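Following up on my earlier thread - several people asked me to post the actual chain instead of describing it. Fair enough. Here it is, all 326 residues.
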Amino acid sequence: MDPRSDAALGPAAPCETFIADEADAGMRLDNFVAACMPELSRSYAQRLIAQGAVRVNGVADESKHYIVRTGDVIAPCIPAREALHVVAEDIPLRIVHEDEDVLVVDKPKGMVVHPAPGNEKGTLVNAVLFHCGDGLSSINGVIRPGIVHRIDKDTSGLLVVAKNDRAHRVLSEALARHEVTREYEAVVYNNFAEDAGKVDLPVGRDPLNRLRRAAAVRDGRAAVTHYRVLERFGTFTRLALRLETGRTHQIRVHMAHIKHPVLGDPLYGPKKKALGVETQMLHAGLLGFRHPRTGAYAEFSCPPPQEYERVLRKLRAARSEDAGFE
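Reply from S.P.:
Thanks for posting it. Predicted structure:
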């Protein structure tokens, strides 16, 4: 829903206030607002600015190109509006498993998990609502019905959706106890001296860049990632990674911190593209949990997308050519 004009905001429009620090200086206003309020898309932040709904030092600024300065007091005012109505959409789903309690789906790269202001359509939730109708848990409200856990927009792979409240509670509690198996595949930069290892570092907001998360920050939350080498390509390595915790961008942050950023990661990896890769080579390929009704352990898997396999073929071919000269 489009934000209303500043004159129409009135006292019902809640405003949040942010003070820009030295790390924020030089950011465009729309990027700053979107970084401070990650539930908003940047396009929605731009519309707020254009409607005069973002005040800079007490004055409505209508230019997304305003460059933030240290000490600026920036107050985005979200117009009072009715709760977001999520519409069921006939979007094809890759269903790996379904029964009366759970739905396991293979989310494609590029699909957002649930709607948010400025991004109300084309999400996994829109697709699941069409498929399941009213048969979803209500614990996470109308915006995230049935959503037990999430993966990034540009990460492909497995998610479990709860079809009733009991299943949702059981699965959420299992996640909190680290009893859900979540294994990813990734292609990362550089070789490893070891065959397996663990990154145990807290993850929180990057104090130098509001758009990113960072490892080993003072106010970060505990985060543990286990990894093992699947294939070595010299300049790159294919890994399997298991999560104990599920912090935002956890794998991407941990791998970048130990100097092995995910290939194609636009936020944490090198700016220069390699191997023609446009998006991050990260895939949630294995998911296991005890069924919320029977208690029996079930494990599901799905292959990486074609682009991921194309990159692996290219790396294997290059490795074979190098071996031929030895």
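Confidence is low (pLDDT under 50) at residues 1-12. That should answer part of your original question.
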